[in-house]
Design goal:
399 residues; 15 helices; 14% strand; single chain; two-stranded antiparallel sheet
């Protein structure tokens, strides 16, 4: 029965594709679909630089930089630095995937900032290691613990050394906020280098989350590993490129494509530029580790913001010198913080955000946007005036 349904579904899709092609209703594919992030930046007339930084545990991360905007070509030595960090299966393209007047990376550059786009280990632009290969299981033995403890310090130190600055502004989305809360609360010397923390759709707990992507805490780890393997999870692939160019470019399927991409994270179709769906699909998901997925599963199951549980007291003692994973305390974070969340966010649920807010000891600004979901903060059509304008005002106020 299932096989006949799948055969019918495939035939239906192929029929629609043929029909759309014969009627000439195939949309033009956006050129950024087949571009690297640097090419995307330069396509819009901005300067783009690629940098590489090595972490203490040997991972080589790709950093992308927009040193100035289209009009302000000044190579000012002491230009204020902004560092942008993507979510769990995203990458640096998240900040430059929309039109130039709608992408935070470009908007910040035009506002006079030196913009750096981070990439977490294991994604499209950070798949190298000093001694390990991506084919080795040991390469993928990481979660957001290591991103906070190794990736962030290495990347931020590199950026500050390169720019001659002592501090920078940090903007995180989703898991980008998680590693910020973790790193800035656990590493005091790192926290001192952050002028202000801008948290978009903040995430340190999943107690109230109703996203299908999160409601899997009761699924055994072994079942997830049987399905996903033991190494990488949802890497950028030729399949996503093919879908973006041959599937999502068809007018009748564009909405289906958008719904498929955002099914697990949620989005407001009225606030999404549907003509850019092929760009989103081409670059996302950008990959992470299965262990990172299992760490998020633990947060959902145990209701604690803590380090990765290695599964036994002996293994935990080997990693942490104690039988259980250490807990993380956001109250230990001294960094001035501004926070935005969406009332319709199925991942960073408003209930979880309400639990988080009292833990932030230096909260300078908070806004809950009634109709915002998880992806609106990076791709929403109205994000420039709903979020980014205030963000830039705060940056210039505390400059």
């Amino acid at each position: 029965m299932t096989m006949h349904f799948l055969e019918f579904l495939v035939c239906l899709v192929l029929g629609i594709l043929y029909s759309q092609r014969s009627r000439g209703t195939v949309s033009a594919v956006n050129p950024e679909v087949n571009m690297t992030v640097i090419q995307m930046i330069r396509y819009w007339g901005y300067p783009g630089e690629e940098h590489f930084v090595e972490t203490k545990d040997g991972y080589i991360l790709g950093l992308h930089r927009i040193p100035h905007g289209k009009k302000n070509h000044s190579e000012q030595v002491h230009k204020t630095v902004v560092y942008l960090q993507h979510g769990a299966v995203g990458d640096s393209s998240n900040w430059v995937s929309n039109l130039d007047n709608n992408s935070l990376g470009f908007i910040l550059a035009d506002a006079g900032f030196d913009v750096w786009l981070g990439n977490s280990r294991g994604n499209t632009w950070s798949r190298k290691h000093k001694t390990l290969s991506v084919s080795q299981h040991k390469f993928w033995a990481f979660s957001f613990d290591e991103m906070a403890k190794f990736d962030l310090p290495a990347s931020i130190d590199y950026v500050l050394n390169k720019t001659g600055q002592e501090q920078l502004y940090y903007v995180g989305h989703s898991q980008g906020t998680t590693i910020g809360f973790l790193g800035f609360s656990q590493i005091p010397e790192l926290a001192q280098k952050i002028k202000m923390f801008y948290a978009l759709a903040p995430l340190i707990s999943l107690d109230f989350s109703f996203s299908p992507a999160i409601k899997f805490s009761d699924v055994p780890d072994v079942a997830i590993e049987d399905i996903c393997g033991h190494n990488e999870f949802l890497p950028e692939s030729g399949v996503s490129k093919w879908l973006s160019t041959h599937f999502c470019s068809h007018a009748i399927l564009k909405e289906l494509c958008g719904n498929f991409l955002f099914l697990l994270l949620g989005f407001d179709e009225r606030n999404l530029n549907m003509s850019r769906v092929d760009v989103y699909v081409a670059h996302n998901p950008a990959g992470t580790s299965v262990q990172n997925v299992l760490h998020w599963k633990q947060l959902a199951k145990f209701h604690r913001f803590q380090a990765f549980d290695w599964g036994s007291s002996d293994k935990n003692y080997l990693h942490y010198h104690q039988p259980s994973p250490p807990k993380y305390n956001v109250k230990d974070m001294p960094v001035p913080t501004a926070l935005w969340n969406g009332a319709q966010d199925s991942v960073a649920d408003a209930g979880d955000v309400r639990t988080l807010l009292p833990q932030i000891t230096n909260l300078l600004y908070h806004k809950e946007i009634p109709d915002y979901n998880h992806m609106d903060f990076i791709w929403g059509l109205n994000a420039p005036w709903m979020v980014y304008d205030v963000m830039i005002t705060l940056m210039k106020k505390y400059q």
